[in-house]
Amino acid sequence: MKKFTVLLVLVGLIAGLALTAFAKDGVEFMDSDKMLVNTVKYYKPAPWKIGFSNASISNSWRVFLQAHLQYEASIHPEIAEFFITDGQDNPTKQLADVEDLLAKGIDLLIIAPATDAALNPAVEKAMDKGVPVVVVDRKVTTEAYVTYIGSSDFQMGKIMADWLVEKLNKKGNVVCLSGVAGASPAEERLKGALDTFKKYPDIKVLEQQYCDWSPVVGKQVMATFIQKYPQIDGIWADSALQGCGAIEAVQEAGLPIPPVTGEDMNRYLKMWKQMKFDGVAVSFPSWQGQIAVQKAIDVLSGIPVPRNIDVPRLVITTDTLDKWVKMDQPDEYFMDSRLPEKWLPKR
Amino acid sequence: MRFTGCCGGFFTRIDMITGTKEKGTHGFEVQEFVTRYGIFLVLVVLLVIAGLISPVFYRSANIANILQQASVLGIISLGQTIVILAGGIDLSVASIVATSCVFAAAIMAGKNSMVLPVALFCLLLGLLSGWLNGVIVTRRNAPPFIVTLGTALIMQGIRFVYTKGAPFGTIPSWLRVLGRGRLTFIPVSVIVFLSLAVIVALFLRRSPYGRKIYAVGDNRTAAFFSGVDVNRVVLSTYVLSGLLSAFGGLILAGYLGFGDNWAGKGYELDSIAAVVVGGTSLVGGYGSVGGTVIGVLLMTVVFNLVLLAGLPYQAQLIAKGLIIAVAVAFYSYIGKTE
Question: What is the pLDDT of residue B8?
Fold first, then answer.
């Protein structure tokens, strides 16, 4: 009897393992390191129907991301239909969006998840149904996807910090202004920055605060920092949103603007050019949306795709500033863009 | 029917019909004192603690910063006070602020000649959304919570359609004076806020219309049978709130210097919190502008203190939440024993 129980448990375990292996191995790899995904089984003759489930278009970066997808989809006649849904930053809404897209009979799903874990069921369901999934921007935590296209937030934060350390000659007082507490881009960028700062004993991080990616909060926090700390030599801001607010605060206090980090947002570039401070812009490329569509086409054509793609960042320095800043264009344009003129979001 | 009004000297309780002050027993007076000045005492205690925690707190530049940061929330909270006094609630304020801010930057485009017409346009926009709130709430007898949430979404949609998600333009120097200018060391926005607070307080206390607002909030049916045009009064409170929010948006635009799609994010709840902390009853009919001003200062001082003490962001949320919870518990306790 005892033996039988042990056998039963063993069989159960093996079956369980086999099942999980099966569930995970919806994805077939070309190599043992799981770097390259075999997509032959997703091959379908064109024309295709592709669905894009966007987390939201609540900020200008997301508008640019979506525009890149739309633009790329428009130049490929083999994509007959391209559906877009707006999750309004709400995972529950986005789950329903994916259901709708699947009901429309899409051949492939591109998803930019609102939060990482919450969209797992949607992605798994699509893969179970044999609809390959391309994830872009933020990650999902399940293994059930074909390829992930993003740009490392860790690297972005680190590159900004490296630049700041160099500008300060490895010595000085720094304040860190982050985005939203708990949001993965904010936390990853901060990790990258602290990874650099901790290597330099003479770089002192006076304080780190979250500013909700809001210029208003950025300005308020910086105004208080200025009162609190007599000597601030550098500002590390994970985004130009609160960064621009912080620059405003320093200017209003009548102080010289210390080296301050930012991204490729035109407002920051304009301020940089007008106020002539030391700046650096590290982009979080919105054209990863374009790559997502290109990879989607590869998947449906049965061409192998990398499991993870890190889209490289553009680094703008004072030397290259003039090339990227556009004084006559809207503040919230992201300049590391591949959109032709007529695809730019306009009034 | 009683109501509480306020101007220079804070909370005065007046009998609506006779206009005379109430006289109570000794014990009642102590309780009255606590109700009237409790929130004021809390602020004083907080200010003392603040000085102990950080020597920076009492620097004139820091005080000016706090007052400047309080003024936009303050102006919005004035509108919220009026709405809540009449028994309503307005969740559309933050969205009106952001829309006003975005339109100001986009259409003024840095030109001083455009300040006046565009400011009027933004105020009109605020007025219209307030009117929309009021009309749906009164004509259709709909819950203000949902109606104003809907208006918030409409305003959000309007600014997104207009800007395609990417705000543009800059704020001309004249409007910037309003948002970040200083008279010696007193921020202009604070002078604007306090002047508005006095006007609203006088309006609520001295004008017959203000008394009607209290009457409607206290007992809608009784007010109706006393000949008050209840719907018109309620409608007007939303219009005033919309107008004040749009004005707050203009000042915030002046503070910021550019348009931001989410400027004023969180102000809907912050303003309600400030009003409640200030002792205004959420069911309406009881409360004062003076309390709201103190409530706004309290919230802003806490924000400043958390930063000065170097506490993490989470501490700010906890502190804010505690203040609201304690205030509500306090007022409900007083209400029960009264």
Answer: 36
Q: Is the pLDDT of residue B14 over 70?
A: no
Beta-strand (E) ranges in A87-238? 108-112, 133-136, 147-150, 172-178, 203-210, 234-237
Residues 45-74 in A contacting B (C-alpha not used; CB under 8 Å) = 57-60, 62-64
pLDDT of residue B16: 40
CA-closest candidate to residue A223, choices B110, B319, B192, B300: B300
Which residues touch A45 (CB under 8 Å, ≥6 apart)? Answer: none
The rounded distance, in Å, linking the Cα atoms of B32 and B22 is 11
Cβ contact (<8 Å) for B258 and A228?
no
DSSP A287-315: THHHHHHHHHHHHHHT--EESEEEPPPPE
Task: Give start-end residues of each CATH 3.40.50.2300 domain in chain A.
Answer: 28-151+286-311, 153-282
What number of other Cβ atoms are within 10 A of residue A5's Cβ? 9
> How does residue B279 score in pLDDT terms, banded at 50, 70 and 90?
confident
The rounded percent of chain A whose pLDDT value lies above 70 is: 93
* B258 with A181: Cβ contact below 8 A: no
- Report how far apart the first and last C-alpha atoms of chain A are (Å, whole number): 77
Is B166 close to A58, i.e. CB distance below 8 A?
Answer: no
Contact A209 B164 (CB under 8 A): no
Q: Does B163 touch chain A (CB under 8 A)?
A: yes
**CATH says A153-282 is which class?**
alpha beta
- Over 80: is that where the pLDDT of A91 sits? yes
The answer to whether the Cβ–Cβ distance between A63 and B69 falls below 8 Å is: no
* pLDDT digits 0-9 by tens, A270-313: 999 999 999 999 999 999 999 999 999 999 999 999 999 999 99
What confidence tens digit (pLDDT) does each residue in B99-133 have?
A: 999 999 999 988 888 889 999 999 999 999 999 99
A294 CA to chain B: closest CA distance, Å? 25
Q: Which domain holds residue B69?
A: 2-337
**In this predicted structure, what is the pLDDT of residue B319?**
85
Q: From the centroid of its chain, how far is CA A168?
A: 28
Which of B158, B313, B314, B320 should we substitute to test contact with A (largest number of A Cβ atoms within 10 Å)?
B313
Token pair 């569509």: residue: A293
Q: Which residues of A touch B255 (CB under 8 A)?
A: 216, 219
For chains A and B, count residue pairs whose Cβ atoms are closer than 8 Å: 97
- Alpha-carbon gap, residue A79 to B257, rounded angstroms: 43
Give me the CATH code for the A28-151+286-311 domain, please. 3.40.50.2300
Give the distance, in angstroms, between the CA of residue B158 and the centroid of all CA atoms in the same chain. 24
**How far is residue A305's CA from residue B202's CA, in Å, rounded to a whole number?**
70
Is the pLDDT at A29 greater than 70? The verdict is yes
* Burial classification of residue A254, based on how many CB atoms lie within 10 Å of its CB (0-12 exposed, 13-18 middle, 19 or more buried): exposed
* DSSP H helix total and E strand total for chain A: 11, 15
Q: Helix, strand or coil for residue B227?
A: coil
The answer to whether residues A212 and A221 touch, using CB atoms and an 8 Å cutoff, is no
Contact flag A214-B54 (C-beta cutoff 8 Å): no
A48-60 pLDDT, tens digit each: 999 999 998 888 8
Pick from A90, A217, A249: nearest CA to B267: A217
- Per-residue pLDDT at B9: 37
* ipTM above threshold 0.95: no
Domain total in chain B: 1
Is B54's CB within 8 Å of A228's CB? yes
pLDDT digits (tens, 9 = 90+) for A2-22: 666 666 666 655 555 555 444
Cis ω before B187 (30° cut-off from 0)? no
> How many Å apart are CA B291 and CA B78, to the nearest integer?
10
